## 1
Amino acid sequence: MARPRGSVNRRATRERILAVAERAFAKGGFHGTLLHEVAAESGMRAPSLLYHFESKEDLFDEVVRRAYRRIEPPLLSALASADSPRELLASVLEAISSFEAEHRDLLGVLNAEVLGSGRHGLGAVRDTMLPLVERIESAVRDASGARMPADVPLRQALLHVIVMHAVRANLGEIAPEILGSVDEERALAAALLELVVSWPERGPSPHAA
């Protein structure tokens, strides 16, 4: 059954708005982006834009979701290309680095908004990034086999690595001065992963009855 033409047109309009909004947010940040300017560049008036997105917060959230949806395919490809936990983590960081290089300005704004005081887009990051982290965690556990106890804080370790990588991306050219080289970052990430892979299994609590 053919898709109703109105539905196709609405989807195309939303995509056009999102493409414009993505460039605007990447250039001006959340507060520096004006809805009426996004609407004008999208070929409409602000009330028409608000028909598709209820507010600037709603529009920014969808830009965040769109960005993280685009990073999913290269991440999943990275997970499929490696076998050991160390190789998996290296492949994931490489995929993230490649994506950052292509979308540096946008990701800098997204990271700054989410990690800053405004907290804009936080819910969208939770809904899109955490499922990806769960996929990475599952792949690392599978690659580790029986060596990894179920209560190992692997997700926390992965999030530490990913968040620090995001901070590096935001620092730009001064990152090596503050955080060291990329090679040092990856060596530290690998060491952290090795630590959690060999995490000791908890025995019975000494206070257990």
## 2
Amino acid sequence: MESPIAMKLLFDSDAFCKLAIGGVLDDTISLFGVDLSECGRLPALPHMLRRGRLRTVYGPEACDALVPISEAVPVLIQAQESWLDRLTQVVAVDPGEAQIFAVAAELSLLVVSGDKRALRVLKDVVGYPQALKGRIAVLEAVLVALCDRLGSNEVRNRLQPMLASDVMISVCFSEGNIDPCEGLWSYYNQLASDLSPLELWHPHLGGLE
């Protein structure tokens, strides 16, 4: 199967919400050298923002504001069964995440992901560490790259709305933390170790292929 015109970067729902509420979604898309039209998201995301668990996590007002933004992001295509079948029995990977990872593996796409639980299981699924080598950009890595590009103070100011709902962001970007990147690197390096043999996208080196 050939990749549709433009689809190069996928967002899982949590990563999309955190970056959008934090006011850095557009900067993240630019970071990867793509346009909004070249991104992909789950079909259910707008519904999840209107009625799903995301409203409980991020609040109705924030979710309502994200609905039109989510609807502007193209819906990712259906993955082939050969990749999906490997994930159907993996409890820690929900159907939406399975679809994202399967499409990314099949078409060699980048994924911005905030689902550590799913990634810790994905590393042991046959074929996925190889297919997604350097293609999973976790939030910690994205935020390091954004701090390098925009400056830590700018990123800190934008992420204020996320401090109450994300532990990692609240720790790294608290007022008392002079250097957010120190904490971000600590989280990233620990995660990179935990996820071996799945090699993550590196904020300074990019993909590893």
